Amino acid sequence: MTSRTARHEQWMRRALAVAASTPLETAALDVPVGAVVLDSDGRELAAARNEREAGADPTAHAEVLALRAAAADRGEWRLAGCTLVVTLEPCPMCAGAAWAAQVARVVYGAADLKAWCESQLARHEQYVVEHLEDMPEVRDWVLPS
Ligand SMILES: [Zn+2]
Q1: What is the pLDDT of residues 106-142, one digit of tens each?
Q2: DSSP labels for 25-41?
Q3: CA of 133 to the centre of ligand 1 (A)
Q4: Ligand 1 centre distance from Cα of residue 47 (Å)
Q5: For the segment 44-89, what is each residue's pLDDT rounded down to a tens digit?
Q6: What angle do CA 20, 89, 134 make, to 5 degrees?
Q7: Catalytic entry in 63, 118, 125, 137
Q8: Is 63 labeled as catalytic in the residue annotation?
């Protein structure tokens, strides 16, 4: 049986491969971030990389694109039980999208002090404790480079 940490590292390797697939012509523009969404059985629903510059879309972060594709795969916006794996700590928009999609957990590689996902999730969690449902579990520093 695969341990939880080994699964997270396996998923992070997949997200790193997605990040590395950024086309060379956009690599200099788009930060090479990769994201993968897995269902509760660990089956990959979707994968995406940053396309903000390539698509001239301010919301085209890897996490948002992967969450959208996973929701399309499932045919519903709720991604309960799913895991979002991303190579870089999500920004506030992506942390909010993960929360809105009701993912069970967020696994990220390198911390991004500029993005402060954990504090965003903590802020959401405080709100959730008072008003809403459970927050996703966060696993950080998986395969930091
Ligand atoms: Zn983002």
Answers
A1: 998 987 776 655 555 555 555 545 544 556 777 777 7
A2: HHHTTS---EEEEE-TT
A3: 22
A4: 14
A5: 999 999 999 889 999 999 999 999 999 999 999 999 999 999 999 8
A6: 125
A7: 63
A8: yes
